């Protein structure tokens, strides 16, 4: 929850939705030492040194069943440290298919991590903990990650198609946004996290990259949705751009956007492929941003 702004407000909305009996807001800085910085390994080290950790995290150890979206950050370290079995839900659509989760480019010293795994049995990727019971995926075809756990296939499109009115109403309560149906034609631009462009990519590079894309869109309005880990300020990037809150889950667009978009554009995204509200989809590759007519 650390990269989500206004997390307290989301907790309130979750309570109001009626989907859960109880909602707890877990802020990293209030439950862990600041030096751990949500890192799985640093959090695991801190847990080994903290005598009060079990009492502090009793709320997640008491339930008979636990589901988690990303078990390779701070809360995943809690489950692994206290040997709490859990079910892993795919963090994003087809993330195990598009990326090898055990050898990500952003991984810190992957060779050292593999040594730690074989010597100390410390997980090196999502779903690698011995306490992970199974993994729920959108698809089990063509996986880039070697998964040893049982796989449960649950297609996201079928899940959304099966939502009843009560569930849709609850989603509108949790994620209230303004009208996304603009007059005239509309384009949807999904940004990628800065690290997707390379380790030396700056915030100025990020803003300039998408500032070059927007003028190439022939649509009347461009809705720009920053990735949850993209903290770039896109305000005033163009008069025809409307910035969608970065914490807004892009999958919900298929529910709340009645008109849809003429085109969806991204540099690299696992979310765009599943959106049905985009009539056309464009995936930009390195070097294509200079084209005079990408869209």
What's the gist of this structure?
With 295 residues, the chain is an alpha/beta fold. The protein contains twelve helices and nine strands. Helix content is 29%, strand content 12%.
Topology at a glance:
Blueprint: H1 7-17, H2 28-31, H3 40-49, H4 53-56, H5 58-61, E1 67-68, H6 74-81, E2 86-89, H7 95-98, H8 110-120, E3 132-137, E4 151-153, H9 156-161, H10 165-174, E5 186-190, H11 203-213, E6 221-225, E7 241-243, H12 253-256, E8 263-266, E9 281-283
Parallel strand pairs: 1-2, 2-3, 3-4, 5-6, 5-8, 6-7, 8-9
Helix pairs in contact: 1-10, 3-6
Nearest-integer average pLDDT: 85
Question: Over the alpha carbons, how many angstroms does the gyration radius reach?
Answer: 20 Å
Q: Strand count, sense and closure of the main sheet?
A: 5 strands, parallel
Query: Based on helices, strands and strand pairing, what is the structural class?
Result: alpha/beta
The unreliable regions are 286-294
Number of E-state strands: 9
Query: What is the topology, as strand order, of the major beta sheet?
Result: 7-6-5-8-9
Helix content: 25-40%
Q: How many distinct helices? A: 12
Please trace the helix and strand order, writing H or E for each element. HHHHHEHEHHEEHHEHEEHEE
Specify the overall morphology: globular
| End-to-end C-alpha gap | 35 Å
Strand % is 5-15%
């Amino acid at each position: 929850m650390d990269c989500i702004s206004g997390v307290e407000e989301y907790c309130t909305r979750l309570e109001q939705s009626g989907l859960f009996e109880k909602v707890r807001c877990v802020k990293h800085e209030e439950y862990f030492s600041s030096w751990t910085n949500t890192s799985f390994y640093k959090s695991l080290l801190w847990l080994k040194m903290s005598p009060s950790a079990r009492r502090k995290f009793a709320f997640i150890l008491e339930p008979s069943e636990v589901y988690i979206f990303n078990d390779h950050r701070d809360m995943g370290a809690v489950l692994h440290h206290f040997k709490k079995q859990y079910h892993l839900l795919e963090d994003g659509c087809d993330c195990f298919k598009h990326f090898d989760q055990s050898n990500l480019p952003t991984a810190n010293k992957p060779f050292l991590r593999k040594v730690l795994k074989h010597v100390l049995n410390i997980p090196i990727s999502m779903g690698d903990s011995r306490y992970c019971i199974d993994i729920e995926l959108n698809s089990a075809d063509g996986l880039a990650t070697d998964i040893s756990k049982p796989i449960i296939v649950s297609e996201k499109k079928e899940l959304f198609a099966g939502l009843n009115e009560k569930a849709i109403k609850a989603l509108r309560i949790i994620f209230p946004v303004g009208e996304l149906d603009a007059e005239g034609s509309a384009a949807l631009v999904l940004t990628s996290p800065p690290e997707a462009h390379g380790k030396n990519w700056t915030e100025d590079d990020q803003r300039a990259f998408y500032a070059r894309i927007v003028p190439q869109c022939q649509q009347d309005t461009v809705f720009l949705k920053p990735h949850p880990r993209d903290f770039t300020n896109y305000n005033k990037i163009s008069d025809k751009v409307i910035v969608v809150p970065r914490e807004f889950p892009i999958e919900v667009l298929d529910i709340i956007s009645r008109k849809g978009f003429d085109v969806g554009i991204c540099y690299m995204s696992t979310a765009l492929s599943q959106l049905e509200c985009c009539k056309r989809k464009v995936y930009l590759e390195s070097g294509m941003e200079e084209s005079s007519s990408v869209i």
